[in-house]
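user: can you give me the structure for this one chain? tokens are fine.
assistant: on it. calling the predictor now.
[tool input]
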Amino acid sequence: MAQLLFSTSAFRPDGSSVEDVPILLDERMRLIEPVCAWLMHIALVRGRTRSSQTWRTYGEALYDWWQTLEANGWAWNEIGPGELAAYRDEMLRPRGDSGRPLARSTINGRLRTIGRFYRWSVANGLMSQVPFAGQEISLSRSRPLGFLAHVDANGGRAQANELTMRHVPMLPRPLVPEAIRRIMAGMSARDRLIVEWAVTTGIRRMEVAGLTVRHLKRSGSEPMIPVQIDETKGGRSRMIYPPAPLIDRTRAYVREERAIVVRRTAVNRADRDPEALFLTCRGQPMKPRRIGAMFTAAAEAAGVTATFHALRHTFAAAMLRFLQREAQTNPELNPLLTLQVLLGHADLATTAVYLRVVETDLSVIEASVDDLYAALL
């Protein structure tokens, strides 16, 4: 069966090191050339896709599709809508590991990735036509209009892959402060700090994993400390603002718990103290998946259904309500635009969903504001 690998720092296609580029091999360990060529194009050429997490998502989608091709004896460049529809329908059936089908958002994401690959293949002469048709759909009226909506000649309609399914996204679900406290109760000092960074700044798993000791500037008289992070989704640098007490507690972790781990594991490492802020018990940098697994396990132990990303939702909803309060005395403040910058969203419509969250359950959001940001008000 096909194998999915990722490049290391030794991969230097243009003289500079490029890590985490997906590489797909067939059952005989040969490069699957059309897929690898497209993934190389995405990672090395296409300017709009700079996130290694996006590369991984694309690689995993094509890896799953190639396994399906091999299992059914289908040639990748000879399939049509029927084979793709069968693949989609198989993903809709309950899976053995969980007993549930894949989420429609996951299925649609895989189909869109496969669609991108085949359109690129046609554009580069590897196929004569894409193996699916497009259809015109109406964009949701609940989605906030863009700034140039008044000059849009499409009339609120767009082309979509006919194989994708209707999917109504659920509103983000912030966690109430009590649930967060229950989850943190059984955590180590390191893991509690990770949760505090996420819930007070809104950073993602990969951004937590990208924090280094150098990010811990000495706190002064300001209640929040500006910190620039570069390991972000999309590779766009942005500023986050952790509370000064959190910076102080994190510096204490570096001096005490982290220093012990570094000394204990230094004998087994040829390199020096790693720059990563949060380390495993073996002295290795915490990876995004490990961070997510850590939080999920702690949530399950506390009887709370939540993923690490719920901490970002909690920050976003609470911060939006905080900014709305501030705007009452400062009319020049635009809460939604400010939140967009804090979250690092490229599209304001992505941020605008939190307006509906605040409107849906204001009591929970008010409790989060008072509990999480009382020291800053």
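assistant: here you go. The chain has two domains: 3-129, 177-376. Residues 136-153 have pLDDT under 50 and may be disordered.
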